[in-house]
């Protein structure tokens, strides 16, 4: 089952994200670095797992290009893109999950995980705290990068079928072109292709004739 992140101090996420925009980019973001920016509580360490999940640091705690891009003027949009990619499954269920009720989000995380209710509440609080710091541009998802194909509308791609149940057979060819960002950080590419894989191989995919 998916392992969604949470912090025990969601109320500190805003200040934490504002801080990483102003301090120098560290070699590693780990428990030894946190006290240097004034985060001395052991609970503050739980925010590192959130950074890792949204792609701001890699498995070794090294800041990625997403972290560096977040320091720019369009930081809200950068965070929005990161959230949409990390929580791709949630965005498949709810078109605007940042506008969902607490109950709707709890229902999702409860169905997706085997976590206790207290943990699910923290997942919801963490997600909402991230949303309050982000801006979501129209079409900033993997699905929006799919090509427009004359005569059909792409709802999803993969084991596609027509909406009326007909199998298009083996004569349907779909080419997808994706403009990747220029970066030497392999973690950025891994997250992009992970999200793309989930889009391509979801089970309930249809091609609706127009």
Would you write up a description of this structure?
With 210 residues, this protein is mainly alpha-helical. The protein folds into two domains: 10-131, no CATH class; 143-209, no CATH class. It contains eight helices and three strands; from the N terminus they run αααααααββαβ. The protein has helices at residues 13-22, 46-53, 65-70, 75-86, 88-93, 102-112, 117-131, 186-200; strands at 152-154, 161-162, 206-209. The chain has a three-stranded mixed beta sheet, with no helix packed on it. It is globular. It starts with 12 loop residues before the first helix and ends with a strand. Mean pLDDT is 80; it is low at 140-163 and 203-210.
Question: Which features does this protein show?
Answer:
single chain; 210 residues; 8 helices; 3 strands; globular; disordered C terminus
Largest sheet: 3 strands, mixed
Determine the strand fraction and express it as a percent band: under 5%
Percent helix, as a range, is 25-40%
- Give a count of the beta strands, DSSP E runs of length 2 or more: 3
Structural class: mainly alpha
Shape: globular
Low-confidence segments, given as residue ranges, are 140-163, 203-210
**Spatial sequence of strands, sheet with the most strands:** 1-3-2
Order of helices and strands: HHHHHHHEEHE
Query: What's the number of domains?
Result: 2
The overall pLDDT, averaged over residues, is 80
How many DSSP helices? Answer: 8
N- to C-terminal separation? 36 Å
**Any idea what the radius of gyration is?**
19 Å
